[in-house]
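Field: COMPLEX_INPUT
Field: COMPONENT_COUNT = two
Field: RESIDUE_TOTAL = 689
Field: MODE = joint
Values follow.
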Amino acid sequence: MEGVIEMTTFDLATQTVRELNQHLHQPAGELAGREVVVANPNGAHNLAVGLNAPVHVTVQGHAGYYAAGMNQLATVVIEGSAGTGVAENMMSGRVHVKGFASNAAGATAHGGLLVIEGDAGLRCGISLKGGDIVVGGSVGSFSAFMAQAGRMVICGDAADALGDSIYEAVLYVKGEIKSLGADAQIEPMTSADIATVAELLKSAGLKTAHDPAAFRRIASARTLYHWNADADQDY
Amino acid sequence: MTHSPAFPKRIQTEESATFDRTALDYIHNAAAHGLYEIRGLGAKRKLPHFDDLVFLGASLSRYPLEGYREKCLTKTVLGTRYATRPITLDIPITIAGMSFGSLSAHVKEALGLAATAMGTSTTTGDGGMTPEERNSSKTLVYQCLPSRYGFKPDDVRRADAIEIVIGQGAKPGGGGMLLGQKVNPRVAAMRTLPEGIDQRSASRHPDWTGPDDLVIKIHELREITDWKTPIYVKIGATRVFNDVKLAVHAGADVVVLDGMQGGTAATQTCFIENVGIPTLAALRQAVDALEDLNMKGQVQLIVSGGIRTGADVAKALAMGADAVSIGQGVLMALGCNHDSYEQDGQRIDATADYAALGARPGSCHHCHTGRCPIGITTQDAVLEQRLQPASGARHLKNYLKTLTMELTTIARACGKQNVHHLEPEDLVALTVEAAAMARLPLAGTNWIPGVGAI
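Field: COMPLEX_OUTPUT
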């Protein structure tokens, strides 16, 4: 029927992650515009990994490690919390975690948008390579470690060593920053930064409203870009 | 001060064994620059190695095969444990992972052409997969490294095998580095980095931290590839017995073991020479671990780190490896450390370019500078022209052919119709150290140090 989105449900109480992922690896033409619901996920690992089609997946509960890993084009909504490495190495598309996310959320993501409504654990956005991450809550230590490109908006606080050895990624934090990592520095917010934060917050669609002007900008001081004896043990 | 005739000149000028010329140079250099030395290639110190083993050819107690006529199989299958599409190679000699960035695109193409002609595999490296190597390689192993530079799901799906790199023999526990002179616009774009920076790679994977996590990570890669693609786990040789067991427990189809003679494009000298254990010792431990788990034959073992000759390959196989991987030897086949390079069939002298680096052919290790006189480890638009893919591929193919002929020569002499039938019983050791490490009897005795009495 025209106008009706075709919906497929995988009930992990009776079906396997393998069946789910195999279904989601069909040619993009078969999947485009379809909706897949994952019932009873019960923290299973590797849900909806390696997607390569503009399909919409809803996980009705908690996901384990690497949910939506290496996502490309798809939209994955996790109604509960997500384990380590949610949306790791995402290329494009959107992953939305309604609960909390564990360690290494959005690690090495090259593109796409990862939204975490709650808090994120350690190393959120580690080695980020171009993706965008919006965290409604706080992030753990060593977030954005060696982040190369992309943007992170953190509406809560950041724990120790934020942006350690950061390259060209840019971070925006509204709350407290316990400490900055090596080579990360706070820079003035320009009107372009405020517009960026506003745009990312709008895309994220968080329930709580945040004033884009209340964020601080963190980026690289670029003092570690070249070997230098006087930099002592900063490497 | 006048010299007392009571002290002969030799005593007056006696050199210290501890503070010898090398140690003095090291200290003077450290004092002058305040930075450690970074260089390419592998450990230069003398180590117990395959040279310290010899084969017991057939005679009365064993029956040899006719050297030039009887068939001796070299076919090698990797990844039979879980993958539904294991890799079948014509020879048990593969090309080790080396990055585009450390090597030029021309070299990557040459490696692919030669490997494909010989029916073997090539491996990507840090920095992602180039079209040059994908297009030229029939069988391409795609590395998943801590940095994840240029790591893309489309390339995961395009790969014939995936190799999760935990470490490398030249620097187990260390991350990579690529100095600014090699980070040209293409390399920078592939790695999402600013041009010309001194790039440091992470030493730990970003999204898992231990063997329990690795189980799930491997599972993720299997799910993404629908369980078709073999998954290798590469380790640098340190606590090999435990690491191999953990890799097997984590679900590896293939374990790749790189000993301390393994090469690097740029690493601290102190790291290269002082961290890790020799390939010979590591290989024995890896085979022990597989046997202990009753996984020999189910999980294949590839060994690398200082493999040069067909005899080295034969010894590695006899000790229990399923295949070897070669990096430095392959680059040397392309002309690394040669005094000249080939341009349209003509040899052109390169000694002046070595001299400009403060190096000379035969002992050059200046890969890290990007000024390779032969055009191999460079991203310079002029220097890279010195390695022409077709000519490089021809030399490498010759080298791989030679190794294979030497391997089958030795296997036939030991009475084996298949190179994989070579066994520890075919080997003895020439030194006490090698006998202890390889757990083989000292030649002419039945003594294995630590195992039996003389």
